[in-house]
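Known limitations

Files may contain more than one protein. Parsers should not assume a single record per file. Below, a two-record file is shown to illustrate correct handling: read the sequence, read the token line, then continue until end of file.
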Amino acid sequence: MAMKVKEVAELASISVRTLHHYDEIGLLIPDEVTSAGYRLYSDANLEQLQQILFFKELDFSLKEIKNIITNPSFNPEEALNMHRLILLEKRQRLDQMIATIDRTVLHVRGEIKMTAKEQFEGFDFSQNPYEQEARERWGDHAVDHANQKLHNKSTTEQKALSDQMNEIYKHLASLRHTEPASAEAQAGIQEWYTCLNLMGSYSPEAFRGLGQMYVDDERFTRNIDQFGDGLALFMRDAMAVFADQNK
């Protein structure tokens, strides 16, 4: 059902004046205007507004947002999934750095002994395996903005998701010497598929493609294989079997 401008403003927690401005600059044009001049927004308009506000939260200018979302090649789902992956990778690294700080405090107190390598865990800022793909997709400027902020999730939620991902990686690492098509391996890779679909929307074929990237892109391989040598290759093969079995 079409919504009036005031209703949309209240729904999205923005001002009516903002919606009028978006219309005036051609960023968000309502699908219908009544004979009395009332703007009516369709479901498609609301979806577009969500995208606009998403990019605006990342500090994109309105001009940049318009250029991105009006590009014929723009895929809203792809944009959301890519940004989520970048943020999750960043969050995982931050969690690791926090853990390093906690261990370092104990090290300074003399309660534990850290190796030189352990003292610098989490400090490699060059290893977000999703950044290059995003840079190629939307350009450096877009990714620079995407790296500036984390979404407003609670610390508890962030920690829970990070812990879940790490536990799955560890479990799969323990299975990496088994056959990728074995029931145990497929049960483990099913957990990974389910986890990824909490963050985005992956078809079995997209899941297969992601697995191939784990091997083709050394940044993926390096990050994944920290849980066990050969894990990236094992996951690629297991994800391919999963895709074949779930066509």
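...continuing to the second record:
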Amino acid sequence: MGAERADTGEWGSSLSLDDQVCFALYAASRAVTAAYRPLLAELGLTYPQYLVLLVLWERGEVSVGELGAALRLDYGTLSPLLQRMAAAGLVERERQPADERSVLVRAGERGRALRRRAHRVPPAIGAATGLSPGEARRLRTELIAIADRLAGDRSP
């Protein structure tokens, strides 16, 4: 019944769990995060810590604001995460002398050392999902578009 509405472009007002896009996203998110858990446990990382390191490995040193924007996290969520990561040697934080409010973040010694070992995570997750690389790219594009629309970002 839900598939019929999707095919005709009608959302309807069904309160059936199986008809809810939000539940499908929620269930998929939980399943993917669970698939990451044992892989990241081998690295001694949580999923949020892994995401922070992905940004830092890609971009090098970034401001806390840039990191928050990349991860779609607010300062109140990101700050305690970065504090724990700094205490574990995963990241280093440095206040800017010109602007004490600005803090730069980079991978710490332990965080840099994990990069090589982390290269096996994406292929393992790809295999677990059963998606082809093309399917994964298309799904990622659709999910980002949904997130952008819900966040009010209408830019392409």
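Parsers that stop after the first record will miss the second one. For reference, the second record is described as follows. Residues 21-43 form the longest helix (23 residues).
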